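Study this fold:
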Amino acid sequence: MIDARLQLALDNGGLDLPEEGRIAVFRPPVDADLDGLPIDRCQIIHDFKPFYDAWAERGYDVARNTKDRYGATIVCLPRSKIEARALIAEACAVCDGIVVIDGQKTDGADSILKEMRKRVTVQGPISKAHGKMFWISEPAADCFADWAIGPSQTEGGFWTAPGVFSADGVDLASALLVDALPDKLGGEVADLGAGWGFLSAHILTRPKVQALHLVEAGHMALECARHNVTDECAKFHWEDATSWEPPHRMDAVVMNPPFHTGRAAEPQIGQAFVATAARILSGHGDLWMVANRHLPYEAELKKRFAFVEEMGGDARFKLFHAARPIRKRR
């Protein structure tokens, strides 16, 4: 974890952060301990709504994007190598001093270190807790400008961005769900975990849809969705789908819920999506859902809905239709 390596680097590893100027910390894990940094000079850069809110609740200044110059920057490496490079490029571009890189070996820390050493002088590394921390002492914006990759169009014409789910093209599970959706979905529809908008673009081809709510926790994904879904019926919500409160009950929910925030599968996330769908649907509303075949969602669906059917799928994915959400009596 970053907290163990950061304290070690500051105590006797040779890392000297400036005594003045702001410090930007890119994408720190939600449970990280940054006590080694002055909270009054730190700005957390995070565009994932649950983590954004969690850091704000801890008293940190939080922003979706960098908007200033910094005396130091710290990048916590994400899983996507392309996204990691883009974050490093941004951290270098906005920093007048030390740029620190931290990450687990499973997230490619060794590979990034090797690549950076080919371009600049890298100090450290500090190795601990199955990860590494290293840093650049001099500004190096020009050295990594070619790593600054932003949103772009795929071959299918959709806008995506590094780090966004299914950034390289259409997700196979979502494509399977699109083919199974009925012609009639109702007037008010929600796409929970809308991503860059593939499902929503197809939902809006249904003639009776009057309003479509795209609910997405990743701000960059939602910005891509704005490019991909331009119908005036679309309404965009940067929210955690598991706690989103709609303006009124929905006629239908369509979703391909995520099932991890790290490497390990977390089926409780998808189960929370099912609970949200039941909560926001009208009494006669319908849920249309796709999931990886190994994930245990059946019990949660039967707990939340009076009618549940598996509509088939393939060897990798299963499709569900659920209706008539069960309301708890007060």
In short: Residues 267-280 form the longest helix (14 residues).
